[in-house]
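Work Package 4 report. The design task specified in the project plan requires that, given a folded chain encoded as structure tokens, an amino acid be chosen for each position. We show below one input record used in the internal validation round.
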């Protein structure tokens, strides 16, 4: 997931933080006892021992997690934390294969908020009683420091199944010089009959987004009209589509109800799928139009999208928050900005979290490491070693203070997070429907079928999987 990993040396300030870590953790180390069914009010405090296996996402959080595991082992002699890296594309299948066969191959796993929880929930530990017990998550852990929008995505009702290590939201990036150029402004007005919208002070509509992309595609100093993820790998294409769909869905809340968990924006608040609706079909139309103006058509993925935008070949990009860090080292450093708001004013939430296998062979150790790996003191490594965006308020402050990203970016991300909704649902029935939807959206993007045909096909397939359909 890392676009541009860069190791930043540990400063004197960081050394001081590590000293605080050691003092704080030693003070509570060993405060854990394994109870299968209930948690005691005053648990005894046996020393941690044995080993656990923790899954890292290859190319994303693996460097940070290795350092955190090393720090943990230094605090707990005799304890072993084995880090196994699994690619994003293989992770869900590997988890389900192991867990369905009652294998305890993994004690702690990572997973994103794009529907995996629905499949994994039967195998995950309910963390709620543990996080509410100070013997496991002491006050110094400070849950109030975690962005609510990040942690709420990994809940079913009041049950928490995972704790985030990465905060994320889909954002709208742009290069101001394309929009402030007076020649471009005059030509756009002449061609489209209205003023060229400036993303820095205007919340543009999806129709305006398409017009701007058409205007700049191969013209007016730009090679492409827009850069966005548009391959079918690891949900990239559907992530982009659902981000575009968010505003249309929220604007219809009076009809469909608010966006609620576990359903997300593709459903009504009562859990009925919205794929065969005018707003879904219209968004597919906009998506197909943007594909015709996009860079690396049908081959732009998570890694390549910000790299392409970072060369300055397009005026706009739709992408997750990691670009806030990687673009600081690109050829357009100092020339790009984050738009006032996502097109339509509403965006999609992202994020990745750690959960514990319900039948872990070493629950005390798994709980202790989960608390440690997501604590305030250790969370800094995800930024400094793996260029990942924070999930804690304090880490945003740290990032600004240490020049990892400017304060303006922090303010922009907080604004996006406050105007974002859950995209894909956390339903056990969703992963096969998602795979089917990916294929249909790709067919629309390549103009092999119409948006209406795709919507009808997705709806029929979803119904065959037992998902209720909104019929108007």
């Amino acid at each position: 997931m890392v676009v541009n990993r860069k190791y930043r040396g540990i400063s004197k300030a960081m050394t001081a933080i590590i000293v605080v870590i050691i003092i704080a953790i030693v003070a509570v180390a060993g405060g854990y006892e394994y109870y299968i069914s209930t948690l005691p009010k005053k648990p005894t405090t046996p020393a941690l021992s044995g080993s656990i296996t923790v899954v890292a996402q290859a190319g994303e959080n693996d460097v940070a997690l290795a350092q955190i595991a090393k720090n943990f082992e230094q605090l707990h002699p005799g304890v072993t934390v084995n880090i196994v890296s699994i690619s994003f594309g293989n992770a869900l299948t590997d988890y389900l294969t192991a867990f369905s066969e009652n294998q305890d191959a993994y004690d702690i796993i990572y997973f994103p908020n794009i529907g995996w929880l629905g499949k994994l929930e039967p195998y995950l530990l309910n963390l709620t009683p543990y996080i509410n017990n100070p013997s496991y998550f002491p006050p110094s852990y400070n849950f109030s420091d975690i962005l609510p929008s990040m942690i709420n995505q990994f809940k079913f009702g009041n049950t928490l199944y995972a704790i985030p290590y990465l905060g994320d939201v889909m954002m709208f990036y742009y290069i101001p010089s394309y929009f402030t150029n007076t020649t471009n402004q005059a030509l756009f007005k002449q061609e489209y009959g209205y003023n060229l919208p400036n993303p820095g002070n205007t919340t543009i509509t999806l129709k305006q987004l398409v017009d701007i992309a058409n205007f700049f595609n191969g013209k007016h100093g730009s090679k492409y009209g827009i850069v966005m993820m548009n391959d079918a790998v690891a949900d990239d294409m559907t992530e982009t589509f659902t981000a575009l769909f968010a505003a249309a869905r929220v604007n219809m809340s009076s009809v469909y109800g608010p966006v609620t968990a576990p359903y997300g924006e593709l459903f009504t608040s009562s859990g009925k799928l919205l794929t065969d609706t005018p707003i879904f079909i219209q968004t597919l139309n906009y998506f197909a139009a943007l594909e015709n103006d996009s860079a690396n058509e049908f081959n732009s993925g998570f890694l390549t999208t910000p790299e392409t935008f970072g060369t300055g070949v397009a005026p706009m990009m739709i992408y997750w928050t990691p670009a806030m860090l990687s673009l600081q080292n690109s050829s357009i450093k100092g020339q790009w900005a984050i738009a006032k708001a996502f097109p339509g004013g509403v965006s999609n939430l992202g994020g990745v979290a750690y959960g514990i296998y319900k039948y872990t062979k070493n629950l005390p150790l798994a709980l202790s490491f989960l608390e440690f790996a997501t604590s305030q003191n250790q969370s800094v490594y995800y930024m400094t070693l793996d260029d990942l965006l924070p999930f804690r308020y304090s880490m945003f402050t740290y990032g600004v203070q240490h020049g990892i990203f400017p304060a303006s970016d922090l303010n922009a991300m907080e604004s996006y997070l406050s105007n974002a909704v859950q995209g894909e649902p956390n339903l056990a029935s969703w992963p096969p429907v998602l795979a089917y939807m990916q294929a249909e959206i790709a067919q629309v993007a390549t103009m092999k079928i119409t948006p209406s045909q795709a919507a009808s096909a997705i709806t029929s397939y979803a119904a065959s999987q037992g998902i209720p359909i909104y019929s108007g």
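The chain is about 40% helix and 10% strand. Validation will be extended to a larger panel in the next phase.
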